[in-house]
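Tokens as discussed.
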């Protein structure tokens, strides 16, 4: 049936609606035609800009990598690292380019072990620990509406300086629970425009109107 519809379809005579039905152009309201033309025109322009931005990112990284290799040669080594953040400044300090790496992590079953160890700590400290600390520990393991746990809150627990062997074991369990699912590299551009010397991010992402 679909093939038969494709055979009779003529874009000068029909338009396809959101349900996949073929509607004679004569039956489509003028404002709906104008809306369709506008959206399609904007989409073509958007995809063209997207290609330009993607090409720009690749070109920037090629140029940066060539520079890093040249810089490394001064010390008799070859640059090949993919980890770590790098900041490049123009000579006058007006422009800044930052290459940043971001890991996307999740937690395996050892996180539950860490939670049980922390619960042991809370029981031991119940008479001595502050209510704020206990609330902070319990809040770290809460899930959001999507059922996901806060990575920042979990990792933030490791920055607490608590001298307790059970706590130390819990922090080790958290470290062992970390699984890196993906790692992405970003290039960000900044310009110093204000008199106070602060850098302003030059965004290549969509901005609000």
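Sequence:
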């Amino acid at each position: 049936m679909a093939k038969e519809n494709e055979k009779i379809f003529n874009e000068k005579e029909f338009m396809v609606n959101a349900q996949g039905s073929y509607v004679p152009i004569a039956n489509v309201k003028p404002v709906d035609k104008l809306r369709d033309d506008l959206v399609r025109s904007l989409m073509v322009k958007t995809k063209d800009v997207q290609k330009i931005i993607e090409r720009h990112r690749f070109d920037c990284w090629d140029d940066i990598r060539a520079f890093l290799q040249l810089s490394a040669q001064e010390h008799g080594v070859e640059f090949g690292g993919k980890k770590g953040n790098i900041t490049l400044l123009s000579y006058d300090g007006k422009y800044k380019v930052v290459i940043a790496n971001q890991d996307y992590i999740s937690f395996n079953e050892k996180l539950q072990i860490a939670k049980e160890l922390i619960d042991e700590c809370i029981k031991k400290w119940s008479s001595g620990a502050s209510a704020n600390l206990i609330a902070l520990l319990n809040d770290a393991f809460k899930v959001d509406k999507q059922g996901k746990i806060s990575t920042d809150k979990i990792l933030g627990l490791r920055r607490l300086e608590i001298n307790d062997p059970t706590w130390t074991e819990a922090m080790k369990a958290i470290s062992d629970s970390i699984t890196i699912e993906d790692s992405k590299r970003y290039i960000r551009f900044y310009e110093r425009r204000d008199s106070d010397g602060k850098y302003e991010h030059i965004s290549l992402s969509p901005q609000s109107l």
